[in-house]
Amino acid sequence: MASLTQAIARLFGRSTARNNREQNTTEEIQPMTKVLVLYYSMYGHIETMANTIADGARRVDGVEVTVKRVPETMDPEALASAGGKSDQQAPEASPKELADYDAIIFGTPTRFGNMAGQMRTFLDQTGGLWADGGLVGKVASVFTSTGTGGGEEMTITSTWTTLAHHGMIIVPIGYATPELFDISRVGGGTPYGASTIAGGDGSRQPDERELTIARFQGETVAKVAARLKANG
Fold first, then answer.
1. Domain co-membership, 97 together with 26
2. Span of the secretion signal (predicted)?
3. Are residues 69 and 116 in the same domain?
4. Number of domains in the chain
């Protein structure tokens, strides 16, 4: 009887160890949730917001964050003459690589209540992805900058139209962060997505309140994307 008991104990022990190994293996191979922060920035305001949003997304466990920018379409001399920022560190993205990510957070300055032409040109090259359904079910969100505040909400929501045609899951931020209730000073921030006010001459930089909202947006989108990926 003693030998039988010992044999059962050894068998149970091996079974438990095997189950633990299988569980650990499953945890180890859990794929990372891939988040892309894709932006266009002429003067650096959106670049700053993009990097801050990326920092927020990196707060979420199991998330891999990439920051890229869309190609510049302006002539280099014209860009320099306009005071554009040409020394941005983020690499340029290609339209077809968007399908590699689980979530994409788009950033664009406002141009008369619409996205900048550079972002429009980039998105107009995603017809192949649309035809293949390459972005269907992926998470999307948008942030922006304006000179005086006019057009910030319209820019975000009009960008949503393109993302909806791709079948993306659009994630706003609502009023879930207290900074959006702070009206003690001029600043950006909408329930649709983060924003910053650059000033008519571009001299104003994103302040801590605006950056906090941006960080919150990055974290929120990453959490949603990770939850969707985990649930298959």
1. no
2. none
3. yes
4. 2
Residue 221, amino acid: V
pLDDT in tens, 152-182: 999 999 999 999 999 999 999 999 999 999 9
pLDDT tens figures, 35-71: 999 999 999 999 999 999 999 999 999 999 999 999 9
In the annotated binding site for FMN, the residues are 41-46, 110-112, 145-150, 165
Residue list for the binding site for substrate? 130
- Annotated binding residues: 41-46, 110-112, 130, 145-150, 165
Kindly give the pairing relationship between strand 139-146 and strand 169-170: parallel
pTM listed for this prediction: 0.87
The parent domain of residue 178 ranges over 33-230
Q: Which residues are annotated as a binding site for NAD(+)?
A: 43
Mean pLDDT of 199-206: 90
Q: What's the CATH code of the domain at 107?
A: 3.40.50.360
Q: How many residues are there in the chain?
A: 232
Angle between the N-to-C axes of helices 45-57 and 208-230, in degrees from 0 to 180, rounded to the nearest 10: 40
25 with 54, same domain: the answer is no
